[in-house]
From TrEMBL:
The protein, known as: DUF2867 domain-containing protein
Organism: Gluconacetobacter liquefaciens (Acetobacter liquefaciens)
Domain of life: Bacteria
Length: 198
């Protein structure tokens, strides 16, 4: 599978391009929100997957093999495991994760700084970015887009990750949509009547 590159219809650079310009797998979802941009992006930054019951159940199910094998996973994988790579004012937030995600313990690698994420690697891991970008939406709303990209560093990593991606993708999509709905509720609840504060 040849790596792909995202090009916006407006010709603008996607902030994810700075960290994963070429990728093997991707997924995008969006929601329209009636709230100020700063409130929306602060809700993105504050969101934790542990706050959603279905997401917690899905993660626990994913970690059954580790428990059966007697491997100690510790706490479930959460958004706090991601490294903040960049926040562009109130328009974008990008998080990164490096690991061998098909392994029972996710094979996570430490990312103490964004430069470490961007550095070239030769080991059998994948680089994953989770981005949130804000765009004008219909009416007085703003459109929040979340995009996940995965770049497999080696051909072996791509072979190992491919079946895992297609296995988890339906659940991953559901989690992303629930995440966007929760961010929307948090943003609009805090906005009071909403449109008057835009």
């Amino acid at each position: 599978m040849a790596p792909r590159r995202w090009i916006s219809s407006a010709g603008m650079m996607n902030p994810l391009d700075q960290f994963v310009p070429r990728f093997d797998f991707s997924e995008r979802h969006h929601i329209d929100i009636a709230a100020p941009a700063r409130r929306i992006m602060n809700a993105v930054a504050a969101y934790r997957t542990q706050d959603d019951r279905l997401t917690r159940m899905a993660i626990r199910l994913r970690e059954v093999p580790a428990r059966l094998l007697g491997q100690t996973q510790g706490r479930p994988l959460d958004r706090s495991d991601f490294t903040l790579l960049e926040r562009r004012d109130d328009t974008a937030i990008v998080y990164g994760l490096i690991g061998a995600f098909w392994q029972a313990d996710y094979g996570l690698c430490a990312i103490p700084a964004p430069a470490i994420f961007q550095a070239d690697r030769q080991d059998d891991v994948c680089k994953l970015v989770l981005g949130f970008t804000l765009h004008p939406g219909p009416g007085h709303r703003r459109r929040l887009v979340t995009e996940t990209r995965v770049f497999c560093v080696t051909a072996r990593a791509r072979r190992l990750f491919t079946p895992y991606w297609y296995l988890i993708r339906p659940v991953s999509g559901l989690i992303r949509r629930r995440m966007l709905a929760a961010i929307c509720r948090a943003s609009e609840d805090r906005a009071g009547i909403g449109l008057s504060s835009l």
